[in-house]
């Protein structure tokens, strides 16, 4: 059913028997609504008229979330938010005389809000889970080992629950800084890409040398964050590390207390300095300038033939920047690459403003939708090359049943 509707130019998402459709204008949305309803009837589905909304609206509750197309935002419904606040108030009134059931109920409600609030729901519930796991039974009074830590997380949610209840579909700021960091048993180092290449280095003490590799990698990230504070402030940062545990811990926290402290400190730093850190794992060979290029394997790499590029360049060129390339397959002198490449103008095309360029865009398949959105965000022009895949999620961003082609494309009007 999803494929059939998307092939007919309908933007729709299904979760079990619940569906959400959308369009740019009221009348077009009304037509889509009638199309969906008639297709359900033709397929002999039973429609719950009382719970269904077939008249187009710009704000509705679906799957316990408020979808707002006026503000382009997503929020937890007032009902769910009030339930969480009530659970939290009851816990704080009786703390620390609380049961595992009470704490688990509240924690579960927080975790369910992750589509809106993000990874902070996991990061700032770690000590709550530590306490729950030490239960004797679900209804017995908890013996909380880290009372202050648990209370700090509860107070965090008391102060932040309402403020965190909105997720914007469009980010107001573009990711603009790329950082690579690494740690050995001797020292730590990090460098920024294209921010006057600032370099961080620190030699480990005897104590630090004896810590685990994950501890040292997290310590390196923590120290580099503080070292680059003036550069990173009010920015979105793509942070590359060759330690997979670091990526998980920064995003979701750790069950090990000494590592959780790093995650919490990094979170506090980012909140204070308005920094968004996006940790990304890379193989160790790709985290070294000297041998990065010879050992990089990009499974998403694909390209057009030189003859096809020449044809398109004669038709709609001249192009100025190849946005997804490397030194071996770039079609233009100016190109962006995923990682460090000789001659690359930028690391990661999404850190760049594409405006005032004629962009040649041949992205990995999983980045097609993001490429379209970035093109619109930058109010830029270019040629996007994608495979013919009508059932893909990006298809309706490009093609509509009514006009045959999206308004984003040349020839759509």
UniProtKB/TrEMBL annotation:
CDD domains for this protein: RNase_HI_RT_DIRS1
Keywords annotated in UniProt: Endonuclease, Hydrolase, Nuclease, Nucleotidyltransferase, RNA-directed DNA polymerase, Transferase
Reverse transcriptase RNase H-like domain sequence ranges: 177-261
Pfam families found in the cross-reference section: RT_RNaseH (PF17917)
SUPFAM superfamilies, alphabetized: DNA/RNA polymerases
Any GO molecular function: nucleic acid binding
Keyword Transferase found: yes
Keyword Lyase carried by entry: no
InterPro entries per UniProt: DNA/RNA_pol_sf, Hepadnavirus_pol/RT, RNaseH_sf, RT_RNaseH
Coiled-coil regions listed in the entry: none
Domain of life: Eukaryota
Protein name as it appears in the record: Reverse transcriptase RNase H-like domain-containing protein
Species, as recorded: Mytilus galloprovincialis (Mediterranean mussel)
């Amino acid at each position: 059913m999803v494929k059939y509707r998307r092939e007919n130019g309908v933007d729709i998402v299904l979760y079990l028997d619940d569906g959400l459709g959308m369009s740019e204008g009221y009348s077009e949305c009304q037509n889509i609504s009638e199309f969906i309803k008639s297709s359900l009837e033709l397929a002999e589905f039973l429609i719950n008229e009382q719970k269904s909304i077939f008249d187009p609206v710009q704000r509705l509750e679906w799957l316990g979330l408020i979808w707002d197309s006026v503000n382009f935002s997503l929020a937890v419904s007032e009902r769910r938010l009030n339930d969480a606040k009530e659970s939290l108030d009851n816990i704080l009134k009786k703390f620390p005389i609380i049961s595992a059931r009470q704490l688990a109920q509240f924690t579960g409600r927080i975790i369910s809000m992750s589509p809106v609030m993000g990874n902070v729901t996991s990061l700032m519930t770690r000590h709550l889970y530590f306490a729950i796991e030490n239960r004797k039974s679900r209804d017995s009074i908890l013996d909380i080992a880290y009372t202050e830590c648990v209370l700090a997380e509860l107070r965090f949610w008391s102060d932040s629950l309402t403020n965190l209840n909105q997720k914007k579909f469009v980010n107001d700021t573009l990711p603009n800084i790329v950082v690579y960091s690494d740690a050995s048993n001797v020292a730590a180092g990090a460098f920024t890409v294209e921010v006057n290449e600032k370099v961080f280095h620190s030699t480990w003490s005897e104590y630090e040398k004896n810590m685990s590799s994950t501890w040292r990698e997290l310590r390196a990230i923590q120290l580099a964050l503080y070292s680059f504070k003036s550069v990173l402030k009010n920015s979105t940062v793509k942070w590359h590390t060759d330690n997979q545990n670091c990526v998980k811990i920064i995003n979701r926290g750790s069950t090990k207390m000494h590592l959780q402290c790093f995650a919490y400190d990094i979170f506090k730093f980012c909140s204070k300095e308005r920094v968004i850190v996006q940790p990304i794992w890379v193989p160790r060979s790709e985290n070294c300038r000297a041998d990065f290029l010879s050992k990089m394997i990009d499974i998403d790499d694909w390209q057009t033939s030189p003859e096809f590029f020449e044809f398109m360049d004669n038709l709609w060129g001249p192009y100025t920047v190849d946005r997804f390339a490397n030194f071996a397959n770039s079609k233009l002198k100016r190109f962006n690459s995923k990682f460090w490449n000789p001659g690359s103008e930028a690391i990661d095309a999404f850190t760049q403003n594409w405006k005032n360029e004629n962009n040649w865009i041949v992205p990995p398949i999983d980045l097609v939708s993001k490429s379209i959105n970035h093109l619109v965000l930058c109010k830029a022009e270019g040629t996007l090359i994608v495979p013919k895949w009508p059932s893909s999620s990006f298809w309706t961003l490009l093609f509509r049943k009514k006009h045959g082609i999206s308004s984003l494309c040349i020839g759509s009007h």
